[in-house]
Amino acid sequence: MLLSQLAYFEALAREEHFGRAAESCYVSTSTLSEAIRKLEAEVGFPLVNRGKSTYRGLTAEGRLVLDYAQRINADQRSLEQDLAHRRGNLDATLRFGAIPSAADRAAEVLGRLVDANPSVHVELVANLTSEDIVSRVLDHELDAGVIHPAAAGGHTRAGRQGAVRLTALGSVSFSVVGRRETMDRFDGHVTGADLEQLPVALLGRDMLARTGFDRAMAEAGASVIPAVETTSISALRALAATGHWVSVVPSSGVESGDLVSLPLSTPTVEMDVALVRLDTRPRSMLIGALDEAAGA
Fold first, then answer.
1. Which of 124, 88, 85 is CA-nearest to residue 108?
2. Which of 14, 218, 224, 239 is at a distance of 20 to 30 A from 266, taking alpha carbons?
3. Lowest mean pLDDT: which of 51-55, 121-125, 207-211?
């Protein structure tokens, strides 16, 4: 059994398409397909359900092998990173996920990481849900991410195989952004009652930040029905810039141009955020460097 076979198999399970999986591994489709057939011959089970020429999911044995393949491939990456550090240079790629409401906090952590380790390359996947980030970390598709910690649920139990570790990064509060001519009518802040009377753009209802917003509004007796929903903070700001909507976004200082940001009050909305990663021992040098950047 070769490491390359396990890498190709993990890529196929991730991409769910032979051609895309081969492209992600920089090999031909025939090379990838033949490697997986040899892997099947070695383990003695079919691992992939195939149509005439298409991927149709994994067999039960394929799902079992995938679990091991993901862990073995992750260990290989950690070994390569640690050996690079022994050579005096942490030359590694960090696969990182971020929720829209904590993109600024994620950028701060990543900035400290690369300041201390200039050879680290970051692959940042933005606009994910907290639940999606936790799932991808558990599946070894991401090394870490910034989430709302409630999404980690039962995955943080000490000693549990596949558990995740959380490092608190404080909280983010929310403000209301709109064009100056719209925001000038308010006296330094915007309330839930004010939002009831405005066309509002919000994060999508599958985001935990939106859940926190809805809960806070309900407790304050405000009924805010969004005119637009999106998973993108940049889209929320772009919508506000048109003047047709005001947007509820994470507070991030003074807006530029004709956009004005005012704090949201009565109710205020704050959400805890945290760095999430697998609770592995020993931890790789890359994860150790990330922990330091996060203040763990």
1. 124
2. 239
3. 51-55
- Report the relative pairing of strands 121-125 and 93-98 from DSSP bridges: parallel
Q: Quick one: pLDDT at residue 87?
A: 66
SS3 of residue 93 by DSSP: strand
**DSSP letter for each residue of 212-233:** HHHHHHHHTT-----SEEES-H
pTM of the complete model: 0.73
CB 120 within 8 A of CB 92: yes
- Domains annotated on the chain, with CATH: 3-73 (1.10.10.10), 91-168+273-294 (3.40.190.10), 171-272 (3.40.190.290)
H or E element that contains 2: none
**What confidence tens digit (pLDDT) does each residue in 17-37 have?**
888 888 888 888 888 889 999
177 beta partners: 247, 261
Q: Which of 112, 93, 95, 123 is nearest to 276 (CA)?
A: 95
* β-bridge pairing 93-98 and 190-191: unpaired
- Rounded Cα distance between 8 and 21, Å, is 7
Beta bridge partners of residue 121, listed in sequence order: 93
Regarding predicted confidence, which is higher, 83 or 194? 194
Is 276's pLDDT higher than 60? Answer: yes
